Amino acid sequence: MIHPLPDIMLEPLVRAGLLEDLGRAGDLTTDAVIADADTHVRAVLAARQDGVIAGLDMARLSFALMDPRIKFTPHLADGSTVTAGTPLATVEGPARGILSGERVGLNFLSHLSGIASATARFVELVRPYRACITCTRKTMPGLRAIQKYAVRAGGGNNHRFGLDDAILIKDNHLAFAGGVRAAVERARAAAGHLVRIELEVDTLEQLREGLDVGGVDVFLLDNMPPDLLRKAVRLIDGRAISEASGGITPETVTAVAQTGVDLISLGWLTHTVRVMDIGLDYSS
């Protein structure tokens, strides 16, 4: 069971989406076509393909902010696996509010469910192995909290949320600092006692140097093929967490997991994943 995010975190995003959609004059189509403002309808949110659901609270808020009289009744929870045709929630209330809030609600729900579904696919592919699937900071601006929430809904783990909750020394840091030893020693001197240090390495030579310096909690093994990853894991030998990253696909993730790495990070889970097809259908 995934713990939902509080409404105080979600509402500003939904409100911004609705304001963008309503523009300067409101919903011209709905106001014209639904002549009676008191017209009440019942509709069902339903999955149109198999997947894992995330973002039901975003959909609920999209209707509630349009009209608090709208009743949103979920039939399952985020993190649930569904098949095409599964009803996700029932929406009842004034037709105008439902029609005006529909697209924003579906945009969030479909996007987050797409992330959860893709994550769940990778989690299943590596289930026999020790590796955990994790996301990265490659998120859309303003949507990081909910995109990372969707990864959790799909059974994945979260990488750092920002620049302020861990130290991750990447290739450009090494280049500007003058190498592995200088960068790691400076990081160690600056890090608080609760801050972990991760070092990105491209070669076994860099990995050996990082191990020799000491104080590195996680090694990011970047763009290494499986045979090199296996050697890197043996070198680390449990002294730190190993993370594989770079160009990993559903076709290659199993081979990566078989190397014994602890984490497999995938940026595209949040920045280019396909939405899940979800619709709102009128129910008599």
TrEMBL record:
GO cellular component term, pick one: cytoplasm
Domain Quinolinate phosphoribosyl transferase N-terminal, residue spans: 27-113
Entry's EC annotation: 2.4.2.19
Domain of life assignment: Bacteria
Biological or metabolic pathway of the protein: Cofactor biosynthesis; NAD(+) biosynthesis; nicotinate D-ribonucleotide from quinolinate: step 1/1
GO BP, one annotated term: NAD+ biosynthetic process
Keywords on record: Glycosyltransferase, Plasmid, Pyridine nucleotide biosynthesis, Transferase
GO molecular-function term, one example from the UniProt record: nicotinate-nucleotide diphosphorylase (carboxylating) activity
Annotated coiled-coil segments of the chain: none
Enzymatic reactions: nicotinate beta-D-ribonucleotide + CO2 + diphosphate = quinolinate + 5-phospho-alpha-D-ribose 1-diphosphate + 2 H(+)
Domain Quinolinate phosphoribosyl transferase C-terminal: start-end pairs: 115-281
Stated family: Belongs to the NadC/ModD family.
Oligomeric form and interacting partners: Hexamer formed by 3 homodimers.
PANTHER family linked: NICOTINATE-NUCLEOTIDE PYROPHOSPHORYLASE [CARBOXYLATING] (PTHR32179:SF3)
Function recorded in the entry: Involved in the catabolism of quinolinic acid (QA).
Protein name: Probable nicotinate-nucleotide pyrophosphorylase [carboxylating]
The organism of origin for this protein: Komagataeibacter saccharivorans
Species lineage: Bacteria, Pseudomonadati, Pseudomonadota, Alphaproteobacteria, Acetobacterales
